[in-house]
Amino acid sequence: MKKENVGRRPQIPNRKSKIANRQLQIDNHTPLMNSRQAKIESERCLQCFDAPCMTACPTHIDVPKFISMIRTNNVIGAAEVVKVSNALANTCGKICPEEVFCQSVCTRGKQDSPIQIRELHFFATQREVKRGFSATRRFPASDKKIAVIGSGPAGLGCAFELTKLGHQVDVYDAHKPGGVPRKSIPSFRLAGRELESDTKFLSTFFKVKKQVVDSRTFQRIQREHDATFLAVGLGRDRMLGVAGEKLKGVLPVLQFLEKAKIAPSKMKVGKKVVIVGGGNVSLDAAATAKRLGAESVVLIYRRSEKEMRVWKGELAEARRQGVEIRFLINPVSVIGKSKVAGIKCRRTRLSKQKDKTGRLIPVEIKGSDFILDADTVVIAIGQTIEANWLGDLDRKGGGYVKVREDFQTSVPGVFAGGDMIAGEGTIVQSVSQGKYAARAIHEYLSAK
Amino acid sequence: MEYQKLKEIEIYPLRDLSYDFLGIHFENPFILAAAPSTDNLDMVRRAFEMGWAGAILKTTSVEGNRVDLAYPMMSTFDHEGRKLFGMGNIDLISERHIDKVEHDVKALKREFPEKMVAASIMAGRKEDWQSLVERLEKAGADLIECSFSCPQGNIGEDPGKMLAQSLTATELTARWVKEATKKIPVSIKITPHVTDIVEVARAVKRSGCDALTASNSIQALMGIDIRSFSPYPSLGGKSTYSGMTGPAIKPITLRTIAEIARNVDIPILGTGGASTWSDAVEFMAVGAGVVEFCTVVMHYGFRVIDDLKSGMSHYLDEMGFPSPAVLVGKALPNIVMHDDLPRKKMRSHINEKLCIGCDLCYVACRDGGHSAIDQQSSRVPHVEWERCVGCGLCQHVCPVENCVEMHIMA
Q: Which domain holds residue B95?
């Protein structure tokens, strides 16, 4: 047994250095538990019956069961329990925001502190990766063919569940499988290896076909399959629509994060970076900018901290890395000649009225304008669906695709899940939607 | 439709854990011991559906036998934060007499023909023992277990004493029972509370009975309330000795099974302190053919069967064993008399890289060993080999796995 867990989280240097890009790779999570730590933690689990953690997990992993298996040193059995419920077991084990799901409702937390469920989950699935995947059983064979468009968490979750039900699945994606976790979640939160171990496992069940989908291929795919599941995600950055947004140095957040993840060596940021927006993706961008060596990173948000829809752990981590977070500020315009020089801002205050998300509406304060110096501005105020070939599928607010309770869109036989139906969510929610949509598709096909 | 409430689709194959023992086919080595969990048809039904290979229905008796229970009957031995390290009960046999149990056996065998359904019995007179056996065999029971070892004593003229504490009574009664059976095997459930367990096992063997169930709970006084001086469980301030079960008694049972298996050629159903799949492996390694569970189920529910099966499957795969049956007796050749132990010069060795500097080995050796460990300013203790005799105490008080090892000296 190694003393592998004594290290603290790495410190990020607040300066531009030649090796700055390497900082993008340094993991900001606590290291993997060792077997003794996992054993001790598992023994703290009360083994609640009908456990709240299990209900809180969107994929409904049988948490008490896998923890009881870690307790008896049946770690491979534990990994199998996790994987029966969650197709992206390693990815979720690495970055699932436990504070909003399983751990937030842990009964043990009412006595002293909640069980570190995610870390136990990750301990078990990583052990299985190290040993080699357990052999799986043969699934029943069906003559139904289902297309899954998009190979992100929802697409993979759906495809695997359909495979288990015996159906033939064709997964289409223009890129390598993985979606958002592969493309835009920063390496320091999710390196390639966890996702790769999941896609490697899944690749033994179905192949992901490289295919750029347009209206014609979408029609053809529908014709050739008994049902279609759409999981194309979002992909297009929302922009502010203010003057100066086209200036050099203004970057939409997805572009910024994708480049930092896929080609970190080509990545450069200025000395003074301003991030516009107060979501989890904005925090990812801020932390990325910091790691790329920006001297100052300021994140501006038009409401207050209370209204921020972020994971508290990530917010604390961004602050720890020296990101300055300023509230009640609205961007008015981006200024500069050929290149960004700053961003004109206006202060806001919160009105008494709430918008439809239940948050107080910010109101601009007249005469409160000021300028923030910046040589890089990242716009991170949300995303919309990029795919322009969806035809006349019914939409709802934000342009997201409208689905019924059974994940079926307005077109019979076409189902959808993941971010494209609800906006940016978590990986585990998407996996869960894919999984349960597969059950709905199965029901739809069985009734046909 | 609530898709989220659908059962998960299993993706891993189930390993075949089945084998034959006592002429009965067991789908896995895990069965339920005669206890509250098997005193109700619906409970056993649920256990079977969840994967238990068999059940021994709670000990029954002839109609008219009075079962005078006293409540509360449970108490626990909680050790350093662990609940139910040991569990005590002052329960008696089932309040449900043979007519009801007979019915349960029939129902269970009809619904679950592939499961092992056994019944446990207790009586006083010869005709009662024999009528119980005959009725249960006729009802379809696969095995009869005879409780000769209820910690509250047996029915009959010697109150407070267990049948299995008398060699002559054991042999005689076992003979009555065996005589009454036509085909099915009989197992005698014995107690470790005897001077020589081997003699008891020989008495059972002589009687012609087929197997032994080793062993029943350990008689114990679960504790005393130090303010009121009422022992546990407290029944209006009074109490009595309990039968203790659970993890705390596992080493006692292991020894009981091993000692019988080393000396008498008789199949053994292991019970008493097994909670996990690895406990089951240990029970089987010292000679148990199947393993009965009770306390862990009373603590966590029938659901523990999932890990029992999964853990056993992975263990067999890892070891390359074809069936649980090969485990039976595997450790027996390694249990020897003290005189026959290898005698090598041993010395303790502390791995400095792993040591966390708690100095627990130091104080244990200073006050309970041979003062062979010295404290150092680095907090990594130093073993003085001149004084170390190799007793191994330091290894066991060390909180770090593999930090202290015992080395054989050249």
A: 11-334
Q: Does A77 touch chain B (CB under 8 A)?
A: yes
Q: In which band, very low, low, confident or very high, does the pLDDT at A21 lie, cut at 50, 70 and 90?
A: low
The pLDDT assigned to A14 comes to 46
Q: Contact at 8 Å (CB) between B359 and B381?
A: yes
Q: Are residues B169 and B251 in the same domain?
A: yes
Inter-chain contact A3–B354, Cβ cutoff 8 Å?
yes
Residue B361 included in any domain: yes
**C-beta of residue B392 within 8 angstroms of C-beta of residue B382:** no
Instruction: Tell me the count of A-B CB pairs closer than 8 A.
Output: 79
The reply to whether residue B277 touches residue A1, judged by beta carbons under 8 angstroms, is no
User: Is B150 labeled as catalytic in the residue annotation?
Assistant: yes
Torsions phi, psi for B43 (to 5 deg): -65, -45
pLDDT computed for residue A2 by the predictor: 41
Q: Give the CA distances from residue B53 to residues B82, B146, B324, in Å, rounded to whole numbers and listed in that order.
A: 29, 20, 13
Give the nearest chain A residue to B301 (CA atoms).
Answer: A49
Q: Which of A340, A348, A341, A344 is nearest to A332 (CA)?
A: A344
> How many domains are contained in chain B?
2
- B311 and A164 within 8 Å at the Cβ level: the answer is no
The answer to whether A110 faces chain B, any CB pair under 8 Å, is: no
Shortest Cα distance, chain B CAs vs residue A259, angstroms: 37
Average predicted confidence (pLDDT) for chain B: 96
How far apart CA A87 and CA A78 sit, in angstroms, is 14
Nearest to A229 by CA among A145, A139, A165: A145
Gap between the Cα atoms of A268 and A294, Å rounded: 9
Q: Are residues B91 and B16 in the same domain?
A: yes
Note whether B291 and B353 are same-domain residues.
no
Instruction: Please state the pTM of the whole predicted model.
Output: 0.94
| Host domain of residue A284 | 239-381
pLDDT, tens digit, for every residue of B267-306?
Answer: 999 999 999 999 999 999 999 999 999 999 999 999 999 9
Q: Does residue B339 fall inside a structural domain?
A: no
- Confirm whether A327 is domain-assigned: yes
> What CATH number does the domain containing A327 carry?
3.50.50.60
The answer on B360 and B306 residing in a single domain is no
The predicted model gives B149-176 an average pLDDT of: 86
* A165 vs B: CB within 8 A: yes
Domain match, B311 and B352 both: no
- A354 with A400, same domain? no
Judged by a CB distance cut-off of 8 A, whether residue A111 touches chain B is no
Residues of B at the A interface, defined by Cβ within 8 angstroms:
1, 3-4, 6, 8-14, 82, 276-278, 300-301, 303-304, 306-307, 310-311, 313-315, 353-354, 356, 400-402
Which token pair is B240?
A: 């009595």
pLDDT band at B157 (very low <50, low <70, confident <90, very high): low
Which residues 351-390 on chain A approach chain B with CB closer than 8 angstroms?
none
Question: Is A258 found in the same domain as A353?
Answer: yes
The answer to whether residues A244 and A372 belong to one domain is: yes
Domain CATH number, residue B393: 3.30.70.20
- A-chain residues near B9 (CB < 8 A): 84, 161, 164-165
- Spatial CA neighbour of A250 closest among A144, A129, A379: A379
